[in-house]
Amino acid sequence: MSELEPDKRVGEQLVSARLQVLQSKRLLMASNQRRQQRRGTEGLAERIEKLRKEIEHAQLAYRVALVRWGSPAMSDYWPAAYSRLIDLADHLALRLKSAARGGSVSRRYELSVEVEVLELLIQQWRESLRLTIVKASA
Amino acid sequence: MEARIPREPAQTWSQLPGEDLTTSALPEVAGWISIYEEMGAVLRSVISRTDGSADMDGLRRNLQWIEERLGVWRDRHAALAGVAIDRKDHTLIYGGKSLRLTRREADLLDFLLRHPRTSFTSKQLATLAWQNSRLSDAQVRTYIMRLRGRLRDIGLGESITVVRNRGYGMAANLGGGKTGS
Q1: Which one of B1, B36, B41 has the shortest CB-CB distance to A127?
Q2: What is the pTM of this model?
Q3: Domains, chain B, ranges and CATH?
Q4: Other CB atoms within 10 Å distance of the CB of residue A59
């Protein structure tokens, strides 16, 4: 996120391309799920599971691109920005908690303080996320 | 709802004695640094696009806290690695040995040590470590290779990693897991 960022137009194209990837995968998933419901095809379960993972990955790639190159004027921008922050903070808090389990008393104390503050940030960002979703759907 | 961030514990934390400086914690700390860096980058990006937004002050405070923690964890990482750089005379001390570096080498090593497990392109290193975007890729490569050669003399030869098509970085576990402390 520095001087090496692409220009604005390229950035917008990247966001749009990642959104298209995500939407295509969602369409494929919906189509596969319909086929499975109609025919109950066993072999599709594996394909659906694979698509679910691909959608998760595409969703993350889209969010990262949106936060990095998107504009706050885009309706998805704020939910994506807060979700990304929450994901990162959650991941960090989890790792700090697990690291604190085996340490000395002073180390556990140090890490618990860090986790406590992170949890406050997460709480704050979740609240902001809720507000941006409410605002976007109003 | 406004969540308040306590300031006192963070200050107390940095003053506690680091009695648990084990090598196993080194990659762990490097991992936390990477996540903090990413959070900081997301927040900076958001702040840079939201002039005048109501959330701005809160986000700035969040970023400030994250940057403070990053500073503390980067210092902790260097302490864990047993590496110290004396910025006055550009001397590197590791495992009881010292090595006199040039100013550029010291700046480069200090920058890489503070950003473990992250790879940087030559252009990024020129700008971020030396604030000199005019250095060519070949010049940066030469500095890196020369520094790696010099670090080898004190057992840190493999600490600077070369990542194909990505650039250069600092290994999470310096000196193959040996610390100088």
Answers
A1: B1
A2: 0.70
A3: 23-181 (1.10.10.10)
A4: 17
